[in-house]
């Protein structure tokens, strides 16, 4: 299989999607922020000095997904119909699991938008909590699901 963003001369190339069918496309991406118990407790109790950590990170993640084409040079600007950011506070493992779901009716997939949304949400969580725990680690950013278009559905087999 050949890389789609490289032309015959080996140059960067924005893929022409004009001939592709408009279908409902969806992607879900996930990532984790590992942080101290103290920082996680402040997120959970909404007592962080900067304010409502999850609310700010949710809005940032949505904005990030919508700005994907401005950040990643060969991504198409997309009119997303839905961006959803979810957080799971895992106190046993001192982490916040972040998921971004993006959806649209269009000619190209939305996995890059979902990945961008997750990363921006994680970066915002980090920014909101860094005064309490500057040693936080962002890990395991990945696509869990993509569906729609010619290739149909793909999901990560995690076991």
Low-confidence sequence ranges:
none
Q: What's the CATH topology label?
A: Alpha-Beta Plaits
- The DSSP helix count reads 4
Structural domains: how many: 1
Largest sheet: 5 strands, antiparallel
Order of helices and strands: EHHHEEHEE
Helical percentage: 25-40%
Number of E-state strands: 5
- Name the CATH superfamily classification: Molybdopterin cofactor biosynthesis C (MoaC) domain
Helix/strand structural class: alpha+beta
Strand content: 25-35%
Strand order of the largest sheet: 2-3-1-4-5
CATH class bucket: Alpha Beta
Mean pLDDT: 93
Assign the CATH architecture: 2-Layer Sandwich
The coarse overall form would be elongated
Radius of gyration: 17 Å
Pathway: Cofactor biosynthesis; molybdopterin biosynthesis
Family: Belongs to the MoaC family.
Enzyme class: lyase
Subunit structure: Homohexamer; trimer of dimers.
Q: What does the model show?
A:
It is built from four helices and five strands. It has helices spanning 37-45, 53-66, 68-71, 111-129, and strands at 23-34, 82-90, 95-106, 137-147, 153-155. The protein has one domain (23-147): Molybdopterin cofactor biosynthesis C (MoaC) domain (Alpha-Beta Plaits, 2-Layer Sandwich). It is elongated, with a radius of gyration of 17 Å. Helix 2 (53-66) runs antiparallel to helix 4. The protein is an alpha+beta fold and 159 residues long. Keywords: Lyase, Molybdenum cofactor biosynthesis.
């Amino acid at each position: 299989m050949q890389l789609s963003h490289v032309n015959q001369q080996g140059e960067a190339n924005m893929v022409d999607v004009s001939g592709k069918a408009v279908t409902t496309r969806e992607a879900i991406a996930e990532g984790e922020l590992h942080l101290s118990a103290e920082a996680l407790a402040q997120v959970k109790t909404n007592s962080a000095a900067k304010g409502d950590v999850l609310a700010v990170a949710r809005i940032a993640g949505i904005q990030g997904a919508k700005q994907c084409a401005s950040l990643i040079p060969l991504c198409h600007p997309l009119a997303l119909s839905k961006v959803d950011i979810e957080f799971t506070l895992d106190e046993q493992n001192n982490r916040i699991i972040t998921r971004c779901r993006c959806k649209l009716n269009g000619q190209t997939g939305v996995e890059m938008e979902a990945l961008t949304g997750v990363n921006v949400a994680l970066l915002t969580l980090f920014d909101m909590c860094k005064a309490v725990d500057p040693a936080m680690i962002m890990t395991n950013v990945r696509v869990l699901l993509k569906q729609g278009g010619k290739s149909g559905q793909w999901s990560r087999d995690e076991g």
